[in-house]
Specification:
The protein has about 220 residues and is mainly alpha-helical. The chain is about 70% helix and about 0% strand. It folds into 2 domains: about 55 residues, Orthogonal Bundle (Arc Repressor Mutant, subunit A); about 150 residues, Tetracycline Repressor, domain 2 (Orthogonal Bundle), CATH 1.10.357.10. Helix 2 crosses helix 3, helix 6 runs antiparallel to helix 12 and helix 9 crosses helix 10. The longest helix is centred in the middle third of the chain and has 25 residues.
Amino acid sequence: MTTPEFQRARSPEQRELRRRAILGAAAELLTEIPLSDISLRELSRRVGLSKTNVVRYFETREAVFFALLNQEFDEWLASLPAQLPEGEPLDVVDALARSAAGRPLLCELWSALGTALERNLSAETARAFKLAHAELQVRLAKLLIVRMKLLPWTAARELVATLILLVAGLWPFANPSPAVAEAVQDPRLAHSRVDFAARLSRAMQVTVTGLLAMESDSQ
């Protein structure tokens, strides 16, 4: 049943409270079922609102999860400075990769970007979310430059973009369906198992090594 305070969501504070409640319900559902199985109706039921009320805040199911992605990215960035060392690039990207691995909701949403989230949106909504996401990427690039003194701006931006692509590609393979997870326990399929944190760390180390080498060659 809809709560009284939600019925009276007239002030900016009340509207923000409702918006956060919708995002909180979406995050909770993602811990229980795959994103592809979450409908706007199910989300509305979980938050205790009508579907019409949810659409007043987010035009579609995809808009909800795109907003949740940016929220999760922002929260990760707030915690990240305390987790990254300063100096050796390989150590920095290893810490970055392992920190990302500790944010399963963020990884899940990044992995859904190209397949599930970037559809069923108006151009205006997609533009707003993508611009916000780009600003978050810039914040991460700036942090990496602080931690890796030799990393130029263009390389930092490419490193961030590559991180997102790697997460999106690796996450589904590291988190297969129950049937596939059981199948790869066969010793003959050991090579099919993906240790997400280790594989992401290795790929990021290869990437930063290559970017720094290319930068050195161009000077």
